[in-house]
Amino acid sequence: MSEIKEHERINDILLGPLERPVLKWFAAHMPGWVNPDFLTMIGIIGTIMIFGGYWLSNTSSVFLWVASLGFVVNWFGDSLDGTLARFREIQRPKFGFFIDHVVDAYSQLFVFVGLGMSPYVRFEIASMTLVCYLLVSVLVYIQTSVKGVFQISYGKLGPTEVRVIAIGINTYIFFAGNSIFNLFNFSLSIFEIVCLIIAIALFSIFLSTSIKDGIELYKIDPPKQYN
């Protein structure tokens, strides 16, 4: 199996041409006392803000702005910690890979639980979306171990685009309210519809990619004949 330090990162996201120069600029101008671990903690703080913002939105939609700010803070810490490590050439391949994705798992849990505790998404829909998100995460980690490829984006979409979509929906709900639509005899809010679309897309990615990779790896590593 490939060593973690040798894996190929694929991050061909839609916002990449805008995001990458911004992250490089931040990395080049970051004070010396700011290290990747500090930025990881900033990302965790952003996750707590998202969770709290969605939870408290039961009392006022104003707290959706707290959740949106949390997405920005989370993006800053989560996206910049690895960029800063590579810029300063202070990578810790094994610890960095481990802590980054353990924190990601906790973040996904808190974001979707917080969303499910808000008045805008039913808990079961938020939970289903979380399961699909985690399925794709598991697939990515297996691919990294078996194929040496760390696939961050699929179809030009990655975590950054998901954050932007969430901020956009938060803003829409604050100004226009939580629109309800009747689809196939089900009443769904706009946030629930977006969650279902994301869940279906993620599960489709998991299913199609796992089948494709399974066939490919079967050809590379066929059954051994017993004599």
- Give the overall form: globular
Poorly predicted tracts of residues: 1-5
- Rounded to an integer, what's the Rg over CA atoms? 19 Å
| First-to-last CA distance | 27 Å
CATH class: Mainly Alpha
Instruction: Tell me the count of domains.
Output: 1
Q: CATH superfamily, please?
A: CDP-alcohol phosphotransferase transmembrane (TM) domain
**Helix count from the secondary structure assignment:** 7
Q: How many extended strands?
A: 4
Percent in helix: over 70%
Mean pLDDT: 89
Please give the CATH architecture. Up-down Bundle
Tell me what portion of residues adopts beta-strand conformation: 5-15%
Instruction: Give the helix/strand class.
Output: mainly alpha
Q: What's the SSE pattern? A: EHHHHHEHEEH
- The order of strands across the largest sheet is 1-2
Question: Would you tell me which CATH topology applies?
Answer: Four Helix Bundle (Hemerythrin (Met), subunit A)
User: How is the biggest beta sheet arranged?
Assistant: 2 strands, parallel
Detailed description of the structure:
With about 230 residues, the protein is mainly alpha-helical. The protein has a single domain (about 5-220), classed as CDP-alcohol phosphotransferase transmembrane (TM) domain (Four Helix Bundle (Hemerythrin (Met), subunit A)). About 70% of the residues lie in helices and about 5% in strands. It is built from seven helices and four strands. The strands form two sheets. A two-stranded parallel ribbon has the order 1-2. Helix 1 (about 15-30) crosses helix 3. About 30% of the residues are buried. Mean pLDDT is about 90; it is low at about 1-5.
